[in-house]
Amino acid sequence: MKRYLVIALVLGIPFLVLCSLSTDEQPVADFTAEPLSGNAPLKVTFTDLSAGDPDSWKWYFGDGYHSGLQNPTYTYDTAGIYDVTLIVTNVQGTDTAYEESYIRVVSDSQFLGANFTAEPTSGPPPLEVQFTDHSTGNPTSYFWDFGDEKSSVEQNPVHTYEEAGSYNVTLVVSDEECFDTLRKESFIVIEDVEYRQITENGITLKWKTDNDNLYVIISAATTGWVSVGFDPLGENHKDANIIIGYVKEGIPWVEDHFGTGQLEHAADTSLGGTDDVFNVTGTEEAGITQISFGIPLDSGDDYDKKLIVGESYKVILAHGPDGSDDFVSRHLKTVIVSITI
């Protein structure tokens, strides 16, 4: 409706009169809304942008509800994708604006949100960390930045940190329509702990501890296996917690064994126990095999020894002949030393 200011003469005296005249324009429906997507319940404000001075409005929100206000606010309580229609009218006619799939409402479980955990988050290098995705909204792709110039596109990757330092970790999740990012500052802390070392009979043992674990590096001049046995009963393998490993075609193979006799040993798993070795790495270069690993100080396994920080233990070191890439070949060299954990 348009209004006009008219000057009228009544008995020769001018008067100002405000007149309302009908518009000669047909309405053109148009609108906007904010926000267009979000978590249920989602409160949306609709704003009429129609031309032609409509004098009535009819909104249809796509879920069976409607409004006759010019600029309504409406709350969507249920997750879904909603079409929105606005019908505007004046004396000249009617027009309709329709937006398909205009409002997107998601539940908490549908909302795309990056989230993750990791275990462990600290320890000495090399530290193997299991990252676990806890993102919501059913993402279809993942990108991990581990903060050490390494990355992964797996959903639940395992990554080994080789150097001491504090590392930020970032996870980006996405689907066909959007993405979300979570960055955790200083999330992984690799402690710079010095290894203690002993070398006997050509076999080198390095070790260090944190609150819960013992970390070991053993190396010898062989292309076969190397092993370390903790707390043997006598001068041989009996009752020792033995870790034995070798490298074949660049891949380290390590098993957790128990000394079943003077010279015999068997995998803990074959005896009903568990293999508790973790953070396994290994190299075979220039005729030297080196194996690195971690074991719990107290695994609770009947076939492992409980080790106490500050206590001294006998340790049996051994290695096999060149090419003995197995867990059963007889040793070529063996020596017993004493170390303090």
From TrEMBL:
Start and end residues of each PKD domain: 27-110, 112-175
Record SMART domains: DoH, PKD
Lineage top rank: taxon: Bacteria
Domain DOMON intervals: 201-320
Xref: CDD domains: DOMON_DOH (cd09631), PKD (cd00146)
Family matches, as Gene3D superfamilies: Immunoglobulins
Protein name: PKD domain-containing protein
